[in-house]
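Open question from group meeting: does this chain pack into something compact, or does most of it stay loose? Before anyone orders reagents, we agreed to write out a predicted structure and look at it together. Recording both the input and the output here so the notebook holds the full record.
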Amino acid sequence: MGPLNFNHILTQATDRLSESESYQGLFHQHTDGTPLPSAKALRRIVELTRSILFPGYFGNPIVNSRTLKYHIGVDVEHLFDLLTEQVMAGLCFASQDGCACATTLRDRAAEVAASLVERLPEMRHTLHTDVEAAYNGDPAAHSFGEVICCYPGLRAIANYRLAHELLSMGVPLIPRIITEMAHGETGIDIHPGAQIGTHFSIDHGTGVVIGETCIIGNRVKLYQGVTLGAKNFPLDDEGNPVKGIPRHPILEDDVIVYSNATILGRITIGREATVGGNIWVTEDVAPGTRIVQTKAKN
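Structure tokens returned:
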């Protein structure tokens, strides 16, 4: 008995997988020289951004105060070049005519990369407030360095702040890839479209979800398992969800939300309110209110 031959199965599968009806909506037609943004390159962009914003903690381990400017300069130039290429790929992906206007798109990508670099000092300032909030809010934190190196909440927030800046400049696809990288690493899902103020902290973090149209004020703290989601999805005439409408919660300044709380819909949690753990909230909460589970009566 000769060796088994499966060529006919492979051929039939190839034929079926090549039928246009099979891959409709799942196939991206590449234009020559314009691949999708690279996950590997975007990871490098995140790494470079961390090394610039937190020098000595990430990137070159031998950096010191005398060589700091040199190392940051090298990283900034590398970041600019990589970001220009990746933003170009993202713009081509979203362009109706591919890269028919490649020169224009490259110029636009370079402008975005330069604007991102220009915003890095302010981004560092904001992340400093996030580090401070995590350190001051956790008795187990022994130093800023421990927060920077170890805390998944800060890692997810740093990716979010980078992605949010890119999204605000009209960059498609890439911001979501960057936040999903942190989601995969930490279990924290922050949509880059959310608006989040300073001194933001996520304690422990696993399972936190922050929706696209959330607005979060300053000095807000979330614990693990918190969901800031949508209550329902309005549909258009064809039965498809309406995109881009405000559908997620607003958390005002100094709000605390404890573990596994679920807050849904375009409602407002007022300033200095506290939402206890394992609570389902679908209505506005007045400022200063403390909501906890009620004990069942015998």
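Observations to bring back to the group:
The longest helix spans residues 102-136.
DSSP finds eight helices and 14 strands in the chain.
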